Amino acid sequence: MDEQAKRRQDGPPKWRRTWAGGLALWLAATLAQAQGLSWEHGLRSDAPERYTVVRGDTLWDISGRFLRHPWQWPEVWQVNPQIRNPHLIYPGDVITLQDCNGRPCLGLERGQNVVRLSPEVRRVPVREAIEPIPLDTVRHFLRDHRVVDDPDTLDELAYVVAGNDRRIISGAGDRIYARGELQRGQRYGIYRVGERYHDAASGEALGLELISIGRAQAERSEDDIALMQVLSASQEVRNEDIVLPLEERELVSEFVPRAPDRDIEGTILAVPGGVRFIGRLQVVALDRGRRDGLETGHVLQVEQQGERVVDPRTGESLRLPGTDAGLVMVFRPYEKMSYGLVMQATRTLEVGDRLYNPRRGVGVAQR
């Protein structure tokens, strides 16, 4: 008899029904939300009865140990507004599988004592808290990339016109001249024009990618020409590089993965850096954005396009049905496009693969 059948026959063990921190509530609601997940549905057949959290875990990983669909994180803090941080969990905490009125739920044990849920926040260094997703990948990307919604405004942006002493390229510590409305004493980002994103069907311009190469400070200006000092540079600064006010790109660390509120149909537009084949934890550009209803944390299913085959009887060229192949979570939406992180992939994804709302009844095995 398998473990799942045994649970149905014997009934759930009589563990203590206790809660701790935002995570316990988050995990419990995930399993007992409105969809009515039961011992037979929603729970992985190999879900452990206890799991000890270790450094390097993420909330997505932990959820995936118990749930078939780890993206189904609840929005419980909407009905519990006092819980500002939904991921209060630390290495050494123990997640336990429990029974809550006939449905599976999860509790949290911390040390020898049971910690009860309350609006209080345990004050520990941020570095100790378990992250919701692998945030380092996203942080590094946001540090180096941004998007201008309207590429036609490129000619209106400030830009480098020359290096000091007629230098063609400049670096940290050098002075450069830039043309545009630049304020003395203000710090700016220096960017190089990257990919221009367009809708494959309509040809509409979706955004212009800018790649960060350094920072500079305006020292003085005359008319519309400013003398600037390069404070830092990851690449050489060249003429025509774009100069923009630094973007507020503080990473939202409390991601709430969830399905979009409206139906979404789109495609993987590109992979920054020019890569075509895509795997787990790679950043991808999507051809849908805020105007389409996408927000930070929205999860989309990836459908890999079916192969083309020839009908052996009629000779017709046929396209086979697509196959669900992964999950992408949006972490930086712009007006007409977004950046997402591939959270799961059962096969190598590709540019052009279709995106749509995840189906709750269909899981994607994590790889």
UniProtKB/TrEMBL annotation:
Transmembrane segments: none annotated. InterPro entries: Bact_Kbp, LysM, LysM_dom_sf. It holds the Pfam family LysM. Residues 49-97 form the LysM domain. Coiled coil: none annotated. PANTHER family: PHAGE-LIKE ELEMENT PBSX PROTEIN XKDP (PTHR34700:SF4), POTASSIUM BINDING PROTEIN KBP (PTHR34700). This is LysM peptidoglycan-binding domain-containing protein. It comes from Billgrantia antri. The lineage of its organism: Bacteria, Pseudomonadati, Pseudomonadota, Gammaproteobacteria, Oceanospirillales.
